[in-house]
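ok so I'm stuck.
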Amino acid sequence: MRAKALMAAILVALGLPTSALAHAVLLEGVPTYGATLAKAPRSVQLQFDQTVDAFPDAVDVRSSSGKVVTAGPAHTTDSGRRVIVPLHRVPKGAYTVRWQVTSNEGHIVSGVYTFGVRVKPPPPTEAYGARGPTKLEYVAKWGYFVGLALLVGGLAFRLLVLRGRALPPALERRFYWVVGVGVVGSIELGILVFILRAADAFQLPLGQLIYGDLSPLARGTRFGTAFIAMTLGFSVVAAFLFLAWLTDRTILLWPAFFLGLALCSGLSLSGHDAVDVGSSWTSELADYVHLVAASFWVGGLVMLAFVVWPTSPSLRRDAFHRFSQLAAVLVGAMVLAGAYLAYDRLPKVSDLWQERYGQVLLIKSSLVVLALSWGALHHFVVAPALERGRGVGSRAVARSLRGESAVAIAILLVVAVLVDANPPAKPAQRPTQAVVTHK
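replied:
not stuck anymore, here's the structure
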């Protein structure tokens, strides 16, 4: 009876009209977000779908240097559906609009966007007042990269390294746990990173961001577009994983794997190698190769150390040998792509120790050298010993694999910091002068 009553209550709640409880939605902003205007506007106007209350300071408009350019208090027209704030005569430049109004139901709705007068405005994530990534965002992004490695690297290990092998049920269960954690982490932590970036752009605490207008971030930036595509895509990957586990059909892991590979490109297409001046398809491709190779390597290490080794002694030697061969290729691709990116992003060698980006890159490179040395020990010493069937204890190998996995995961933490660090600006190329010869 209680279950039926609960179900009835849910159905009634779903059937009730919700329009009376809906918060206000911004229909149009004039100037609109991302607009590049030929001449200066005289005001900023915000049109909502319902009546709103606006305080005199409800709309804040500032130049790129932080100067307030509003010429008077905000007021409402059109039966309270339009909010208008007059502007001073604004010169050429980029401008940030932050607004807050109160809906009929009492919720505070807010938003932020940018526009430019005879210049292209920055994305909302770089609006005036935005401080950039916080420590919490770095941690969330680190967890996101770990989840991506567990998902894509775990699937690659299962399909490429353990292919054609009869796997014990304990190994299969642990495999699905690892990739399940990876896909859930990729979805949930991706959402958290987006919310933290929005909170920084809005300059609001997280508690007041519930009714924020996120459309300028979601549709007006590469970061937002990639976030939406990757979140929806990883939801499909999760569905394939669930069906593969439910039906015990390994073939369903292949579409999950290929879709995960495709979604990794979202990070490369929305990062510095895609949007910075001087970026090209080669830098985007190198960044993608670097990310995929690192994900395969880190995820494979975790699978070998925490899935195969504890659950299937009979598969240890074969899995170690196969992964060692694959890891050599992955490491080569990762190092070559990383070297090209360092060359492309750092105009001068001195940028390595003089610029923040170069300093973080040095820390990452030091950890990579440590991990590669560890991997070389496994490849040239441990793998041959396991092939001979003697000379190496299973517990010692397990501890060594876990140690290499810990270093690899630490590298992802540095990567989380590195992706949000701005590379040094490249020197402007001087225009070539035509040489005129006189006859």
